[in-house]
Amino acid sequence: WADISKAFKASHPEIMGPMASLITTYLILLITTTVGAAAMKWNLKKYVSAFTVVFWITVICYIVGQNAYIAATELDRQKYGINWSLSLGGAFYIIALVVGLIIGNLAPKGFREFIKEGAKPEWFIKVAIVMLGAKLGYLAIKSFGFAMYLLVAGASATVAAYLLFWPLAYTVSRRLFKLSREWSACFASGISICGVSAAIATAGAIKARPIVPVMVSVLVVVFALIELIVLPGILVTFWFNEPIAAGASLGLTVKTDGADAAAGAILDELMRSRAALELGEQWEEGWILAAAVNTKIWIDMFIGFWAFILAVIWVYYFERKPGEKVQKMEIWWRFPKFVMGYFLAMLLVIYIGLNVFPDVDSAYKSMTFGIKPVEGALRKLFFMLTFTSIGIVTDFRLLKKEGLTKLAVCYAFVLVAIIIPLGWFIAWLFHMGMQPVVKP
């Protein structure tokens, strides 16, 4: 926007005005997330107040980041009546992150503790990822073969990567950095699988001391934040010719759901802006992001399985406690349930599109009215809430904790020497040549 009065609008402007849409969105999200907070037995009074602040901070960041002088590409300048711009599509994500980091590290302690009650990045991103499942299903109605190929390629890449990541990370931490089995197992899971969730699941499986997953989780979050800021720029600069592989590589290398999806969203914006500017092509939004989330979701599915395997190994080989058994339900307890929501949303949309309507074109056109606000505006809003929340809950003071330095050096070494290069190679191996669908 160049005119502040046009800074935002409803998904269906013919039904509702801009301000009414914004207020309605706030009320609906407040009610629905409060129901979720109640189910999780949170303090509702604190949650409602803090979420309200987080929501409106996020909205302001989005509006600022969408200013034409900041976001418009060279091709869009004439439309907005401007003669220059920074061409930073997706800048609203970074603005939200920076504002969150300022609050999380520089605001008075009382305010920081208050606002954290409404900053729930892992929750927000899982809602957004389920909505992304709906988007993938929606896109698959027109490009079913490509969507299925993306899913299979992501699954194959994930299995190949994981079979290398975990044993290499564990071996380096044990042999080179002399960490104990307890530390090495949680470390290898945290840097190889799904970051915080994997570290916690592994710690529970091997009955590690509480401090172990906490320390590993701190490093996972801090390094994921660094990757979120650095990797999209590197990938769009040096790997523009392989946009889907670049997206998939984020799922293999960025070790939290929130940071991975956030980095994928930024990369999607940057890649599409460059394609429009240099190639004159309008790539459909979401394919690069879907590649990033897809590989990450397959990795997430390893959590329950691997926690069970480690529990068996620790009980029967390392701890050797006669008579102790590992419950097979451990897999289900550790399984990330939101993954089912992602696939259910995708399959449901595909089923309706391919079975209810007489042909693909009529299905796509008819479903657009209902699907677009969910997979578009609402999904982006939850991504934005995730960015703001990641910043708020990231406290760099934790890096000063005693004993974290050696672990941090180990994490940085494994990430740079093993995870990132292997992740990039495997993503390219299984996604080489894949390009986003071009808008007609």
Please describe what this structure looks like:
The chain is mainly α. It is about 75% helix and about 0% strand. The chain is built from 19 helices and no strands. The chain has helices at about 20-40, 45-65, 70, 75-80, 90-105, 110-115, 120-140, 145-175, 180-190, 195-205, 210-240, 245-255, 255-280, 285-300, 300-320, 330-335, 340-355, 360-395, 405-430. Helix 8 runs antiparallel to helix 9, helix 9 runs parallel beside helix 11 (about 210-240) and helix 12 (about 245-255) runs antiparallel to helix 13. It starts with 17 loop residues before the first helix and ends in a 9-residue tail after the last helix.
What is the compact description of this entry?
With 440 residues, the protein is mostly helical. Helix content is 76%, strand content 0%.
The coarse overall form would be: globular
**Mind describing the biggest β-sheet?**
none
The chain-level mean pLDDT equals: 84
For the CA atoms, what is the radius of gyration?
22 Å
Q: How far apart are the termini?
A: 25 Å
> Helical residue percent?
over 70%
Q: Please report which band the strand proportion falls in: under 5%, 5-15%, 15-25%, 25-35%, 35-45% or over 45%.
A: under 5%
N-to-C series of helices and strands: HHHHHHHHHHHHHHHHHHH
Secondary structure category: mainly alpha
* Count of distinct strands: 0
Number of helices: 19
